[in-house]
Structure formats: C-alpha cells, structure tokens
TrEMBL record:
Transferase among keywords: yes
One Pfam family linked to the record: GST_N
Name assigned to this protein: Glutathione S-transferase
Subcellular location(s) per record: Cytoplasm, Cytosol
Source organism: Arachis hypogaea (Peanut)
A GO BP entry: glutathione metabolic process
Biological classification of the source: Eukaryota, Viridiplantae, Streptophyta, Embryophyta, Tracheophyta
EC code: 2.5.1.18
Length: 228
C-alpha cells in the first residue's frame, strides 16, 4: 500500500481524476488528505513549483498536475485490468490530449468566470462564453456513450467534473449551463459517467463541495467589490 500515495482533498475534482484513474486500473494507494489552509511539508516538498494538489507519489517519486499524473498511471500500470485510459492509436491519443487541454484551459476557466461574474451584462457575456465553449464538447460526445467509446477513458476522467461539480457551480453562481434541452448528449453522458463504478464511489458529499467552492467564489467577488 505504501508504494503509491495520493496527496489530495476529496472536494477537488483534479484529485478525483486521480482516484478514478487508480481505481479503474485497480491500483491500491494510500490517500493523504491535505489541509489546503495549512499546507503540509510533504506537499510543499513534493510540488515545490505550484504547491497544489493532486500529487501522486510512486516509490518515493512525486508527480504533479492531474493530466500528467493520469498519463503516468496509464503508462505505469499499462496492463492492469486490461483497461487503457488513452487510445492506442497515435492520432486518437493526440486528439484526446488536445481536448483534455481544451477542457482545463477553456471549459474550466469559462465556467468559473460565468459563476463569479457580476450580475448584469458581465454575467450575460460570461454565460454565453461558457455555453459556446461547452458546445464543442457536445459535438465531441454526440453518438457515443463515453468520450472513450464504450468504456470510460482518459477524456471522460478529465471531463468528469461536469457530471457533478458543475451543478454546484451552477447553483452558487445562479446560472444554468448544461441541461437536457441545451446539451442532450453531454447531459446524458454526465448521467452515464457519474453512475458508473468506480466513479460513483469517489464522489464527495455535495455540502463539502459547496463549502469548498463558496470560499473561492466569495474571495473573488470581494476582491472585485474592493476594486470597484
């Protein structure tokens, strides 16, 4: 058990990605819960550049950043459970990496922006931008059960926050981005994903996620109010 350790916090969806990847691969691991308000020496030593979770420690060697960690898991435990996270075809693998970066660099940012935007024209434009960004994922999932085909793969894990964490952001931001009418394929994918084992076994209580995001949202809004 001590060979693989995961430094993380259950409310964080990047940390959930790593749990999902490890569980799909059948890798046993020790979860080291991190207090982000009082970061441990182990976290700072393991990720001195960003000092953020998640961090995977394998045989004493740390790996940071969720997308990097997922690829490491896939390559290190290649034959576990006969389940590859990334496509085997080089072109399809490159596409999966492209869309994973798109999700983190565009979707996450635009959704967060819509959530914290001030009411009025700023909010309307932010919501429109988030919807436009998410529309690209709707096209990618159309006609498929999962982004990875019939089985959950790398891109499903990266996009997995949309199946649970998004609804919390929508509630806190008083917005609606994904529903069955606007994005039927993405909405159906989210239900399939969140109800699949082991995904459903690594979902934190909703009230914990609300508290986790509320802190960040309130901080951003207070900073904006002070500038105004």
């Amino acid at each position: 058990m001590g060979e693989v350790k995961l430094i993380g916090t259950h409310q964080s969806f990047p940390c959930a990605r790593i749990e999902w990847g490890l569980k799909i691969k059948g890798v046993e691991y020790e979860y080291l819960k991190e207090d982000l308000s009082n970061k441990s020496d182990l976290l700072i030593q393991s990720n001195p550049v960003h000092k953020k979770v998640p961090v995977l420690i394998h045989r004493g060697k740390p790996i940071a950043e969720s997308l990097v960690i997922l690829e490491y898991i896939d390559e290190t435990w290649k034959d576990n459970n006969g389940h590859c996270l990334l496509p085997q075809d080089p072109y399809e693998r490159a596409l999966a990496r492209f869309w994973a970066r798109f999700i983190d660099e565009k979707c996450v940012i635009s959704v967060w922006g819509a959530c914290v935007a001030q009411e009025g024209e700023e909010k309307e434009k932010a919501v429109e931008g988030a919807i436009e960004t998410l529309s690209h994922l709707e096209k990618q999932i159309k006609g498929k059960k999962f982004f990875g085909g019939e089985k959950i793969g790398y891109l499903d894990i990266v996009a997995g926050w949309l199946s649970y964490w998004l609804s919390v952001l929508e509630e806190l931001g008083e917005i609606e981005l994904v529903n069955a009418e606007r994005f039927p394929c993405l909405h159906e994918w989210g239900k399939n994903f969140i109800n699949t084992s082991p995904i459903k076994d690594c979902i934190p209580p909703r009230e914990d996620v609300i508290a986790y995001f509320s802190f960040g949202i309130n901080y951003v809004r207070s900073m904006a109010a002070n500038k105004a």
